[in-house]
Design goal:
The protein is mostly helical. The protein is built from 13 helices and four strands. It comes from Cacopsylla melanoneura.
Length: 274
C-alpha cells in the first residue's frame, strides 16, 4: 500500500481515484492515526523494541505519514480537525512532556500532528526560550562582546553572508548576530543591531537564494520551489544548500522577530517567477 501511494500522481489519486476513493484514504488515515496513538499511550510500542511488533509499527507509521504529507499538500480529508486526536488532552499532554514521560515524548516525535499546529508552535517557542536561557543567549544576557558581527557588502550579500556565517558553530549562530552593511561606495552604513538590520539581511538573503535566476531552486507550474537539477553548476553548491538551511533555521529560531520573513519572501519569489 505504501509503495502504491508513493507512485500515485495527483490525477490518479484525486481525479480518477483508481483502486481507492478519497474517502477510503480518509478512513484509512483515521484508523492508522488512532491505532498508532493507542499503541504509544498504552505502551505497546517502544523505540528499543525489535521484531514483528516494531516492524508493524514502522510500516503503519510510514503509511500514515505518507498520507499526512499528501493531505498537507492537497486535501483529501473533509473534517477540519481530521488529524487531531480528541482523546489527547492538551493540558495533560503538556504536563507529561514537562515531566519527561516517554509516551508523550514518543507521540511528539512520531505523530506530532495529533496536536494542533498552534499548540506545537507554542511548545517549540517554549523549548527555544528554555534553551536560550540555559545557553545564556537571551538578549539581556548577551553582551556585545558575545555577539557575532559580520560585514556585508550590498553588492555581495550572498557571498559575504555565506563566507562569514557558513562555518560558525551552532552556538554562535543561535546567539546574537549583528550586521554591518557596506554601501556601494564602500562606506559603512549607519546602524548595527540585532532586530532591524539583521532581519533585513535575513530577508534579502532568503529572497536571493530562492530566486530561480540563481539556479539553486526552480519553480513548478504550481509555483512550488524545488532544488534545481543543474545547481551543480555553482561551485560548492551542496555547501550553499547547507547555508540556506542554516539561514532558514535561524529565521525559525528567531521567529519572535522574523515570523513572517520566510513565508512572505518565498511567496514573493514564486510570484515574481511566475
Amino acid at each position: 500500500m505504501t509503495h502504491y501511494i508513493i507512485i500515485l500522481d495527483d490525477i490518479e489519486m484525486y481525479e480518477r481515484q483508481e483502486c481507492f476513493s478519497l474517502s477510503d484514504y480518509e478512513y484509512l488515515s483515521l484508523f492508522l492515526n488512532h491505532f498508532l496513538y493507542k499503541c504509544i499511550v498504552n505502551g505497546l510500542f517502544d523505540q528499543k523494541m525489535s521484531g514483528s511488533v516494531s516492524a508493524l509499527f514502522h510500516s503503519a507509521h510510514t503509511l500514515l505519514m505518507l498520507l499526512y504529507r499528501r493531505d498537507s499538500r492537497r486535501k483529501f480529508t473533509t473534517a477540519p480537525n481530521h488529524w487531531i486526536i480528541k482523546d489527547c488532552k492538551l493540558n495533560s499532554f503538556m504536563g507529561d512532556l514537562d515531566r519527561g514521560k516517554k509516551s508523550s515524548q514518543l507521540l511528539l516525535a512520531k505523530i506530532p500532528h495529533i496536536v494542533s499546529h498552534e499548540e506545537r508552535v507554542r511548545l517549540f517557542r517554549k523549548y527555544v526560550a528554555n534553551e536560550k536561557s540555559v545557553l545564556g543567549l537571551t538578549e539581556s544576557a548577551c553582551q556585545a562582546t558575545n555577539s557575532t558581527l559580520i560585514s556585508i557588502h550590498r553588492k555581495r550579500l550572498l557571498e559575504d553572508g555565506y563566507r562569514q556565517l557558513a562555518k560558525i558553530p551552532p552556538h554562535a549562530l543561535k546567539g546574537i548576530v549583528r550586521v554591518r552593511f557596506i554601501n556601494v561606495q564602500g562606506l559603512d552604513e549607519a546602524g548595527i543591531d540585532q532586530d532591524g538590520v539583521f532581519k533585513e539581511f535575513l530577508e534579502e538573503t532568503i529572497k536571493c537564494v530562492f530566486d530561480p535566476g540563481l539556479n539553486l531552486f526552480k519553480v513548478t507550474s504550481e509555483e512550488r520551489l524545488y532544488p534545481s537539477p543543474t545547481s551543480y553548476l555553482h561551485d560548492s553548491h551542496l555547501q550553499l544548500f547547507e547555508f540556506v538551511g542554516r539561514m532558514l533555521g535561524k529565521a525559525v529560531y528567531e521567529w519572535r522577530r522574523d515570523k513572517t520573513c520566510v513565508i512572505l519572501v518565498c511567496c514573493d519569489t514564486c510570484d515574481n517567477a511566475g
